[in-house]
Amino acid sequence: MENEERKKLEEEYKNLKLLIEFHSTYGVLEKSEYEKMVNDILDRMNEIRKMLEKE
């Protein structure tokens, strides 16, 4: 994995984390939408973490 690609994945991970924090704090979505969004974000965060650990 190139350094630039790694930085992009790390940045995406940070942004996803911020997105969860935002929605947790302000609760702008319905509960079912919120749960689906959080699950999708956590899935993507796990994918990113696995990709970063491979290196």
Give an account of the 3D structure.
The protein has two helices and no strands. It is mainly alpha-helical and 55 residues long. Helix 1 runs antiparallel to helix 2 (31-54). The mean pLDDT is 91.
Describe, in short, the structure shown.
The chain is mainly α and 55 residues long. It has helices at residues 3-26, 31-54.
> What is the strand tally?
0
Label the overall shape. elongated
* H-E order: HH
**Quaternary status:** single chain
Feature tags:
mainly alpha, elongated, single chain, 55 residues, 2 helices
How are the SSEs placed, and which strands pair?
Elements: H1 3-26, H2 31-54
Helix pairs in contact: 1-2
